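Query structure, 105 tokens:
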């Protein structure tokens, strides 16, 4: 399964990119994703389900730790990859719950 994630982090700063926005972009650009597009008011990336869901978990944790007060995101199914199994062993995104919920330090 292929997914597309679109996201923004807040608060906005029109003069320069805040630390949380820079961190979010670095996470997405360094993940094993394709079709990455970063911009001043929104970012998108596409890839296999496992790669996108993993990157989203890291994105949430690291951008919040870097000062984001809000992360808005949308994940869409955009197609199928041949040979890719079910996400999280057939449990959907819930299989990644520990990653998405974080664990605190």
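Result returned for the query:
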């Amino acid at each position: 399964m292929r997914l597309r994630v679109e996201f923004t982090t807040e608060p906005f700063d029109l003069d320069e990119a805040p630390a949380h926005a820079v961190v979010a972009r670095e996470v997405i650009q360094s993940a094993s994703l394709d079709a990455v597009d970063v911009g001043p008011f929104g970012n998108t990336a596409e890839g296999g389900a496992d790669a996108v869901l993993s990157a989203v978990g890291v994105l949430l944790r690291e951008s919040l730790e870097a000062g984001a007060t809000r992360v808005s995101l949308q994940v869409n199914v955009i197609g199928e990859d041949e040979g890719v199994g079910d996400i999280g062993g057939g449990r959907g995104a819930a299989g990644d719950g520990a990653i998405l919920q974080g664990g605190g330090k």
